[in-house]
Amino acid sequence: MPSAAKWLAGECPVILPFALRRWNERSPSPLLKILLLWGLGVATLLTAPTLAAPAGAAPVTTRAGQQARLVVTAPAESLVNGVAAEKDLYLTFARLLERHIKRGEIDGIELSVVDYAGWRDDPLRSQTLEAFDRARPERFETKAARLAFWINAYNLLAIEIVLQNQPLASIRDAGSWLRPVWKRPIVPVAGRIRTLDEIEHDILRPRFAEPRVHFAIVCASVSCPDLRSEPYLGVQLDVQLEDQTRRFLANRGKGIAPDPESGEARISKLFDWFGEDFVEKGGVVAFLRDHAGKGEGTLASVDGLDEARLEFLAYDWSLNDAARLPTKLSGTGPKTLESLP
């Protein structure tokens, strides 16, 4: 580095701010101020701890001998201006879901479980986290694409916080009384470190007002809705959400449990915690009548429900871990990503 540049890199960052303050006190000429600001800008560029560089470039060493973190510019595909771009954004996430989501049964409840050990060691894990960090959902072309992104982000972060705190019997064990797991910072998404609470209560619920989202976000527990073995995509989000809702309600272990004797049913605790989100759909019972599958034997029980006297299933917060499976069932659930045009 030339000697003048060395001086700018080493001494200017300290001297210039002081000099600027002193010169302002003495009202220097505009030209001197311009020259001073130019020198400060050059020094800032030379000493910046974070340097932009192409993907795959070698680490850069700063004057302090420390390796600077390379910032890779987000690819154009992160704008998600079509089906192909969405598929590119979620490519590694889709592979993780395909590889590590299994069907099984825990405590008498049939569900999709996560092979957390396999996910933890999969090299696609870090690539997926980087892709979600680089994405900028506010630039996405459609509201559906933005909603799909934040659903996927919630599910990814729920898995990640389990991996960061293993071994766990329940995701709630990763938190404390003072700071529950929902309020714990996890990893960066869209350029900023996020919590599960932020995604659910500051983004998903107020911005999108879509009650079916409660059957799409998965908090790593047995009584949660099942993880799909595919990402959510804006281009087919309505179909995915409807399918997800019907599948959840049809699961008698955690959606709707009909009582043949009374003709009524117990329903998921989710409808108790988030009942207000179903008001615009006519209330919980009206929502259930619209979405409970007629072929699943639940609709008759739903017709007997009284909005004022709903009864709820116990919520099993234990981990939806594939390692707990006493037996495995065939199949991995719905998969449609590869079938898209």
Short description:
It is built from 13 helices and 11 strands. The chain is an alpha+beta fold and 341 residues long. Residues 1-27, 43-79 and 336-341 have low confidence and may be disordered.
How many strands, what sense, and barrel or not for the largest sheet? 3 strands, mixed
What is the radius of gyration? 26 Å
Shape, principal axes of CA atoms = globular
List the quaternary state of the chains: single chain
Distance between the termini: 53 Å
Total DSSP helices: 13
Please tell me about this protein's structure.
The protein is built from 13 helices and eleven strands. With 341 residues, the protein is of the alpha+beta class. It has two domains: 3-71; 76-254 and 316-339, no CATH class. Strands 1-3-2 form a three-stranded mixed β-sheet, with no helix packed on it. A hairpin with a 2-residue loop joins β6 (188-189) and β7 (192-193). α2 packs antiparallel against α3 (30-47). The longest helix is centred in the middle third of the chain and has 22 residues, at 143-164.
Secondary-structure map with pairings?
Blueprint: H1 3-10, H2 12-25, H3 30-47, E1 50-52, E2 60-61, E3 67-71, H4 83-89, H5 91-100, E4 101-106, E5 109-114, H6 116-121, H7 124-134, H8 143-164, E6 188-189, E7 192-193, H9 196-208, H10 237-250, E8 256-258, E9 265-267, H11 270-273, H12 284-291, H13 299-303, E10 311-312, E11 328-329
Parallel strand pairs: 1-3, 9-10
Antiparallel strand pairs: 2-3, 4-5, 4-11, 6-7, 8-9
